[in-house]
Amino acid sequence: MKTIDLSRELVVARGAIAPPFFTWLAMVVYAIVFYTLTASAPMLGEITWRDASRVGTGWWMTAFGSSTQIGGVTVSLMPTLITLIALYASYVIFRRRGISSWAEVAAATIAQALVVALIGAVVRPDGVWWAAIAGAGAAGFVSSLAAAREELMNLPYLDRAVPRLRLIAGVLAGLALAVGLLALVMGWSRLIQIHGFYLAGAVGSVGLVLLQLMYLPTALMWALAWLLGPGFAVGVGTNYSVLGVESALLPAIPVLGALPSVSAGYPWLLGVVAVIFFGLSMYATKREESTLGGGLLSAAVASVAIAFAVSIGSAMSAGALGSERLATVGPYPALMFAAVLMLVGLPSVLGTLAMHPATRAYLSGKRGDHRTESTASETPESLSDQGLGEEAPTTPPGAVSTGETDEVPFVDTEEEREQPSIG
């Protein structure tokens, strides 16, 4: 009787348990220490250290897409730094485990979902925590599939577009970081002023800074949304975009002091972004050795993939920081998808088309054909107008043209003159 060997799946499942478990443990310990040392801070509500573990667990589950209740306030904005740490740790573990089958991917997916389900069932935090089960399963699926991409996915078009994909992603990340740093510098005084309202002491201040660092990738995605045009909201009726700023009363969160003031915006920056990616595509095309069709396909695939990734990141960077007015926070995924296609995808395709040798050869050939047609179009009449219509005579002076007589012309040479006459 043939037995089923699940040893590989069990090895993968054991590795999948570690990332969600240790991120949960870290956030619970942080919550206990933070709430114990800063229990008097006004923004922290009436939560005591006895409830800190449940609060920390609920907050951790928002990293996988759920919502929780903290001091009676609904919070669903994901601490994306925790999410990315869990994803990257899972990816590294799965690469070391050498995932090579769909059964192992399924084992990773189920294991991470079960970790969240068991912790939620034991701790039972406030809010819709069970949504995190699906989110953890999705994280396990994505990270394990990425680790096994060579074995399980055969996508040659995507593989050829990977160099462009990395280049575009790096430039977008750099632009978002530059905008974020500029906003931090310009709003530093307001940020420090809001931070001082908490009166949390040295240890509490460190905890407050760490709390905001959990949302660092979220802040960078907001900066990118500002730069690309769709913008982001921090409450109903607000929008922060390069096209203009509409603001309102904001919650007393120090990092929000870096938000721009109400203004008409800087629309010309959209053109700068488009020019950057046009030039970037020309650079990538110059480095590639592919046909024009292959280059255009790589540019299109990379642009769509980046647009999809940015829209997913935008969805992860949106949520709620409270009820009513603060129920809408973050960028708009659909608008971000369209903005990336317009400001990144279209310039990338045009830059490839402009820089490819086939395009330049075609244009050079068209210019040569145009010059030939211009020369051929000059009629005899037009030439005669310029004095070039009649052919110059080729017969030397004194010679008789054969066209004027049928007789052979007589050549009077010196040798014939010296011959004696017969008579």
Automatic annotation (TrEMBL):
Keyword Nucleotide-binding set for record: no
Compositional bias (Polar residues) at which positions?
374-385
Instruction: Tell me where on the tree of life, at the top rank, the source sits.
Output: Bacteria
List the residue ranges of the region (Disordered).
364-423
Membrane-spanning ranges:
21-44, 70-94, 101-122, 128-147, 167-188, 194-216, 223-245, 265-284, 296-322, 334-354
Q: Cite the record's Acidic residues compositional bias ranges.
A: 404-417
Task: Supply the Pfam families for this chain.
Answer: DUF6350 (PF19877)
What does the UniProt keyword field contain? Membrane, Transmembrane, Transmembrane helix
Q: What is this protein called?
A: Uncharacterized protein
